[in-house]
Design goal:
This protein is globular. The protein has helices at residues 2-18, 186-191, 199-206, 210-222; strands spanning 42-43, 48-49, 77-82, 96-102, 107-112, 118-124, 127-132, 141-146, 151-154, 160-164, 170-176, 184-185. The strands form three sheets. It has a five-stranded antiparallel β-sheet with strand order 3-4-11-6-9, with no helix packed on it. The protein is an alpha+beta fold. Strand 7 and strand 8 form a beta hairpin. The protein is built from four helices and twelve strands. It has two domains: 59-187, Jelly Rolls, CATH 2.60.120.10; 192-222, no CATH class. The N and C termini lie far apart (50 Å). The structure holds 2-acetamido-2-deoxy-beta-D-glucopyranose (2 copies). Residues 63-214 form the Cupin type-1 domain.
Length: 224
């Protein structure tokens, strides 16, 4: 029975993918609250769903986004997530949010969200933000300084960043077109891959001496 459900699920997934929609599949019902224990659930997409009759307000609720994350780290930023992991009621709904705190001169380094477009709103401070277009569009940097109340969009899949260029802390909130956008931090994935990517390959790709690559790998893998 489990195997059949899995196969049907897999076939539906393959069908959905072949329709060339890179976005979260649209919800197939009003609500589909995620549950941890699969045995009483019905699998739709994303996560297993709770019986809708058992849904409660808490399934759609999260508190604490008024509190700043701790930015005392190497890059001076902190992301507080409000996605399907924290709010099970987001399951299949194709949206989520984050709060981002930046220490003075802190940064959210170049990264990409494989499943979501992001729309960012600055609440406090001054951010220099940008994204880079794909190879086909000549890797053009599209960047701007944002102040309180400003909004900026990072298109799905494109590498983007935010830097606090002010002397004070900055705060932004962002919304995503996915219940679980995913994050690929470029430096961590390239130089922090486990096991490490051959330093000669990376040296050639990044026009770096393999010794420098090894040094970077040591920093990203071992935190030295
Ligand atoms: C972000 O802030 C939270 C809450 O203060 C903290 O638990 C967490 O370790 C911080 N993360 C990083 C990467 O500094
Ligand atoms: C990219 O560069 C090529 C060669 O210079 C040019 O022909 C093309 O118009 C550029 N495309 C864009 C989107 O800027």
């Amino acid at each position: 029975m489990k195997a059949i459900q899995f196969l049907i699920g897999f076939a539906l997934f393959a069908l959905a993918s072949s329709l060339a929609s890179a976005y979260d599949p649209s919800p197939l019902q009003d609500i589909c609250v995620a549950i941890i224990d699969h045995k009483d659930g019905v699998f739709v997409n994303g996560k297993f769903c709770k019986d809708p009759k058992l849904a409660k307000a808490e399934d759609f609720f999260l508190s604490g986004l008024d509190k700043p994350g701790n930015t005392e780290n190497r890059l001076g930023f902190n992301v507080t997530n409000a996605n399907v992991e924290q709010i099970p009621g987001l399951n299949t709904l194709g949206t989520s949010a984050v709060r981002i705190d930046y220490a003075p001169y802190g940064q959210n380094p170049p990264h990409t969200h494989p499943r979501a477009t992001e729309i960012l709103v600055v609440l406090e401070g001054t951010l220099y933000v940008g994204f880079v277009t794909s190879n086909q569009l000549n890797n053009t940097l599209i960047a701007k300084v944002l102040n309180k109340g400003d909004v900026f969009v990072f298109p799905i899949g494109l590498i983007h960043f935010q830097v606090n260029i002010g002397k004070t802390s900055a705060v932004a909130f962002a919304g995503f077109s996915s219940q679980f956008p995913g994050v690929i931090t470029i430096a961590d994935t390239v130089f922090g891959a486990n096991p490490p990517i051959n330093p000669d390959f990376l040296g050639k790709a990044f026009q770096l001496d393999p010794k420098i690559v090894k040094d970077l790998q040591d920093k990203f893998i071992n935190g030295n």
